[in-house]
Amino acid sequence: MKLHDLKPAEGSHRKTKRIGRGHGSGKGKTSGKGMMGQKARRGPGPYRTFEGGQNRLVKRMPFKRGFTNIFRVEYQVVNLEVFEAWPADVVVTPEVLLERRIIRKKTLPLKILGQGELGHAVTVQAHKFSASAKQKIEAAGGTVVELPWIIERHSRSRGPNPSARNAEAKKAKA
Questions:
Q1: Closest Cα to residue 78, out of 113, 46, 117?
Q2: Is the four-CA dihedral 101, 102, 106, 108 of positive or negative sign?
């Protein structure tokens, strides 16, 4: 085999389409561009978001700066001043706070902040505590119990949801 014997594979190359060479060619006059209009003209076509002169979607949307963390955990916040009027024997849990309508959602974690003073010993159960809240509760003779907060991450693929599978497994055990 020599250099002049090399040829491309059969059917891998087509002849170029000869445009604008008379109506007998099938691609004469308008050269496959159809009738007149913006797309029939030379040069690049309209920009990607063009909607025929209508105010385009990207212009209709509100302008937003910065970054949004999609994994942000939003806490329900309660200050220590809320527990000042409570009796000392009550154990403060997210369920009790939900019952008394101090917090509204049982699906969000609870954080205790240190605003206000605490005059008596209280046992407080929450998912998170600020340093000042922890210090004030312990100074009053109370106890701090941190509850675990398990974040269920949903499947980001189109496949089955692993958190749903785990829920089914937990129900089967119970």
A1: 113
A2: positive
Provide the edge-to-edge strand list for the sheet that holds 128-129. Answer: 76-79, 110-113, 128-129
**Residue type for 44, please?**
P
CA-closest candidate to residue 84, choices 118, 132, 57, 111: 118
Q: Which element (helix H / strand E) includes 169?
A: helix 162-173
CATH 1.20.1260.10 fits 91-146, yes or no: no
| Cβ–Cβ under 8 Å, residues 20 and 31 | yes
* Phi, psi for 142 (deg, rounded to 5): -90, 180
For 125, phi then psi, to 5°, come to -110, 125
Using CA atoms, how far residue 4 sits from 7, 8, 13, 26, 33, in Å, is 8, 12, 18, 35, 39
- Mean pLDDT per 10-residue interval, the chain, length 174 residues: 93 92 92 89 89 92 89 92 88 94 92 93 94 94 92 66 62 69
> Comparing C-alpha atoms, which of 114, 116, 107, 115 is closest to residue 75?
107
